[in-house]
Design brief:
Blueprint: E1 4-5, E2 12-13, E3 19-22, E4 28-31, H1 34-41, H2 53-58, H3 83-129, H4 131-134, H5 141-157, H6 163-191
Helix pairs in contact: 5-6
């Protein structure tokens, strides 16, 4: 049983499935489904259709150059049946398939690694651009309020009659503390 490759999309054509087209010059084209056959008749380029293997290989999404692909090439040389040769061939085919799958997985992993770096850079740029949306204006108010309350408790211990003057001073202290806290929170965001 020979599993053919679709001429257009590159997927496998099992026996009894798909369409076979023989041109006037005796070249045989196998198609896995009518979609591939119709696109071939429309003279579409498989490298421009995003769902084909040819596009994925040309765009660098799949492994294109690898010595394991040499084993898949069709050989029309008749070989006398030999049981030992047959067993060795099957074990070799399994081993080649295993190696090919490992290399493809490694290729995909490297692509994803690069994509993560690019995505991280985009995210950092977006956060820097829209920092006002992320950071709350009341980011450092808790610390400022605590320090002011501690100061007020100390002031309450010493009873003064000049309450109006101290209220204006505490407002100024609060404003300065808020400004300092905002600067500190900015530095913390930059450090992270």
């Amino acid at each position: 049983m020979r599993i053919e490759r679709c001429y257009f999309c590159g997927s496998s054509c099992y026996p009894g499935k798909g369409v076979r087209f023989v041109r006037n010059d005796c070249k045989i084209f196998n198609f896995c489904r009518s979609k591939c056959h119709k696109n071939f008749k429309k003279k579409k380029n498989p490298r421009k259709a995003k769902w084909t293997k040819a596009f994925r290989k040309s765009a660098g999404k799949e492994l294109a150059v690898d010595p394991t692909f040499e084993f898949e090439k069709r050989r029309n040389i008749p070989v006398k049946y030999d049981r030992e040769l047959w067993a060795n061939t099957i074990t070799a085919m399994q081993r080649v398939e295993e190696i090919k799958n490992k290399r493809q997985a490694h290729h995909i992993f490297q692509r994803m690694k690069l994509a993560k770096k690019i995505q991280k850079a985009k995210d950092i740029k977006e956060v820097e651009r829209d920092l006002a949306l992320i950071k709350s204006p009341a980011a450092g108010l808790k610390k400022a309020n605590k320090s002011v309350e501690e100061g007020e408790m100390e002031e309450d211990a010493e009873i003064d009659t000049s309450i109006n003057l101290k209220a204006k001073e505490t407002v100024k202290i609060r404003e300065e503390a808020i400004v300092e806290e905002i600067h500190e929170s900015d530095q913390e965001m930059e450090d992270n």
